[in-house]
């Protein structure tokens, strides 16, 4: 698969690649990133063959975005292809539902993003057995027997546990299973699952990839042409396609991807470091913290540690007072946006987290402002 003009940028750094990924070669009187192509039917004389047939099958706006994501997931690797989807869940479901058959077994992380686990009932109703094991300590290793597809999510959302992708992928392949990694939290600038042995890297582009909290998007990247074709056929048959406007906005946003992720990662570490000194903050987690249980494996397989910091306050009321006292950080779900957001995760049910558990997504505001706002809100929450 052709990744746009990037052949010329082999070996370029992450910010250079973010700016240029998937953009066509400079052409006189043409924009750097052509606008969204709004189309359902293309003019299609004669035989119904490509490259553009129908708006549910192909769109040049998706193709440019797909080339950009492939270049980020696997720099300079022409074998890697990406399919973009209407949302992260459309991408997750595309892999889980297109790659397994009745009678087979899927291994999911017991602490995955909760909507991924919500597919369990659907899989079981189709005769697929679903097994669960935790992310931490590579516990999925002990559950590989007879499995056809292993789903990894590292770091996990919201618990921020990390597993060793290379170790699990090697063991899964030896057991005859395919391996998919949910790369949403790490982002392709934080971790490259395909180069660590995974068959699929799957992510929500709603989060840090697009990063502005204004669209939903998902994608699946793979090096295997047959797997890529089956995922694309799934997209076509269920119609889980992104709108051209969303695809174009996401591609435009990727130009600042490295800037944003670098700033978010630095800010997240600054916040986590400040929180280390607070006695009411328990079970503080961020993979960049040297004492974090995830740090050793994360430092080996990740290049950036991401925007999410999680911690537990003494109880629900304390966490609610804290969130209400924040002035700069709004209470919202999702993560990876330019704006800091936080939420008490237990308000959704479905995650094994205590009532005072806070998932904090650090934005690109100035670190001093974020830390000052959080420390002040903690003081107010403790005084009440
Ligand atoms: C948000 C999220 C998804 C789903 O993405 P949507 O774009 O909301 O459908 C999948 N996996 C993880 C880890 C997520 O955080």
Task: Walk me through the structure.
This protein is α/β, with parallel strands linked by helices and 384 residues long. The chain is 34% helix and 14% strand. It folds into two domains: 4-254, Aspartate Aminotransferase, domain 2 (3-Layer(aba) Sandwich), CATH 3.40.640.10; 258-383, Aspartate Aminotransferase, domain 1. The chain is globular and about 75 Å long. The N and C termini lie far apart (59 Å). The mean pLDDT is 96.
Secondary-structure topology with pairs:
Elements: H1 14-20, H2 60-73, E1 81-85, H3 88-98, E2 105-109, H4 114-117, H5 120-125, E3 129-133, E4 149-153, H6 165-174, E5 178-182, E6 200-204, E7 218-222, H7 225-238, H8 244-254, H9 257-275, E8 282-285, H10 295-301, E9 308-312, H11 316-325, E10 330-331, E11 341-344, E12 357-361, H12 367-383
Helix pairs in contact: 2-8, 3-7, 9-12, 11-12
The structure holds pyridoxal-5'-phosphate.
Summarize the structure.
The chain is an alpha/beta fold.
Q: Tell me the overall shape.
A: globular
For the record, what is the CATH homologous superfamily label of the largest domain? Answer: Type I PLP-dependent aspartate aminotransferase-like (Major domain)
Amino- and carboxy-terminal Cα gap: 59 Å
According to DSSP, the number of beta strands is: 12
Q: Can you count the helices?
A: 12
Taking the sheet with the most strands, its summary is:
7 strands, mixed
Q: Rg from C-alpha positions?
A: 21 Å
Q: Which stretches of 5+ consecutive residues score pLDDT under 50?
A: none
Order of neighbouring strands in the sheet with most strands: 1-7-6-5-4-2-3
* CATH architectural designation of the largest domain: 3-Layer(aba) Sandwich
Class derived from helix and strand content: alpha/beta
Mean pLDDT: 96
Report the top-level CATH class of the largest domain: Alpha Beta
Q: CATH topology of the largest domain, anyone? A: Aspartate Aminotransferase, domain 2
As a percent range, the share of helical residues equals 25-40%
**Secondary-structure element order, as H and E?**
HHEHEHHEEHEEEHHHEHEHEEEH
Strand content: 5-15%
What is the number of domains?
2
